[in-house]
Amino acid sequence: MNKSKFHRLWNGFWQLADPKIWIASTIPMIVAGAYAYGRTGKFNFFWFGLSLIGIYLIEIGKNALNEIVDYESGVDRFIKPENRTPFSGGKKTIVQGKLTIKEVKIIALFTMLAACGIGLAIVLFCEPSVLWIGISGVLISAFYSIPPFKLSYNGLGEIAVGVTYGPLITSGMYLVLTHQIDIYVLLVSLPIGFLVTNILWINQFPDYEADAQGHKYNWLVRIGKKKGVKVYIALYIASYISFILLSIVDKNPLWLLGFITLPLVIQSIHIAEKYYNDIPRLIKANAKTIQVYQITGLIMAIISLLM
């Protein structure tokens, strides 16, 4: 392999992997780890780190599968230049010629198999009960894009993301570290699930026309941008209700610190309401939604450690 091809493959791989978006899965794992330590006073760095690597490999595999399907359906190719943002249009590796479809397929296969290998090691040597959570995570990640389900094309993508990054990853990591699952960790996962779903939701606005043209019938395409802003607001409200519920059930008022993000949330809502059809200006709402998720994750981890 010559240097130019290696350079292209190397850059294309990391563009596809897109480590900056791993924050979506890092937060539930960190919160789960902190909550496990807060509850038990114990923490296993080895199994935590191995689980982290496994989830990141699934992230890359999921990105690769989504890249292939969105390119072949035309979704990535239909996005107008003025609507291309850092938050839209997939990873753009095939569109930009950084990787071929065959290369992306190989990456998808390798990373998914490697993730399954790590998952099997965790099942065999740490926690057998996590098997079903792991299988569910791999299947949802794969069928998010590919047939026969194509969840993101059939109005189930938003639910899949919320369930995976909320209850599935959070409870899975907690189970690996504590060998048990209880109602409290499921409640802890709810704000995470709602907020990560909101990131996906607001990131679908720049792709709205391209998704519709490529027959990617997510819920934003189904209801339209104007109504979509109302869903955006509702998901924020649901996350705050989760904090109230968590503080009551867990008898810990510190969970109400989740409301610290309220000023940032109000700003992002105002932007979305005003500029949902003006993608360059809407970008600020995309960025603020991610900031809310990051700040919330940090607050939840700190609260968990203080238990």
TrEMBL record:
Segments crossing the lipid bilayer: 21-38, 44-61, 106-124, 130-147, 159-177, 183-202, 231-249, 255-273, 285-306
GO cellular component terms listed in the entry, alphabetical order: membrane
InterPro entries xrefs: UbiA_prenyltransferase, UbiA_sf, UBIAD1
Main location: membrane
Pfam families, A to Z: UbiA
Key words, A-Z: Membrane, Menaquinone biosynthesis, Transferase, Transmembrane, Transmembrane helix
Membrane topology, as annotated: Multi-pass membrane protein
Associated pathway: Quinol/quinone metabolism; menaquinone biosynthesis
GO MF annotation list: prenyltransferase activity
GO biological process, one term: vitamin K biosynthetic process
Compartments where found: Membrane
PANTHER family: 1,4-DIHYDROXY-2-NAPHTHOATE OCTAPRENYLTRANSFERASE, UBIA PRENYLTRANSFERASE DOMAIN-CONTAINING PROTEIN 1
Protein name: 1,4-dihydroxy-2-naphthoate prenyltransferase
Biological source species: Caldanaerobius fijiensis DSM 17918
